[in-house]
Amino acid sequence: THVYAIYDAVTGQLMKYGESAAGLNRLGQSLRAQRQIRKLEKQYPGRQFDSRIIENFGSKKEARLAETRR
Q: Number of H helices and number of E strands within the chain?
């Protein structure tokens, strides 16, 4: 389980934090964040978004707590 951040790839503006237990793709990116990025890029044509994993946790409860503190 991990906490991730989604941000505008050009400006660096933070869009949101999230937590996920869905795992990572072969590039080490959050599967959940990548799904959300595709949705954002459809919602905002011409904008590019990226994500990064902030921290990994041993349980969903710990990750949820860390996410809500951000």
A: 2, 3
pLDDT of the chain along its 70 residues, tens only? 999 999 999 999 999 999 999 999 999 999 999 999 999 999 999 999 999 999 999 998 899 888 888 7
pTM strictly above 0.85: yes
- 6 close to 20: Cβ distance less than 8 angstroms: no
Among 66, 29, 69, CA closest to 19: 66
Q: What is the DSSP string of 44-65?
A: STT--EEEEEEEE-SSHHHHHH
Q: Which helix (H) or strand (E) holds 17?
A: strand 14-20
Q: Report whether 1 contacts 61 (CB < 8 A).
A: no
Distance from first CA to last CA of the chain, Å, rounded?
16
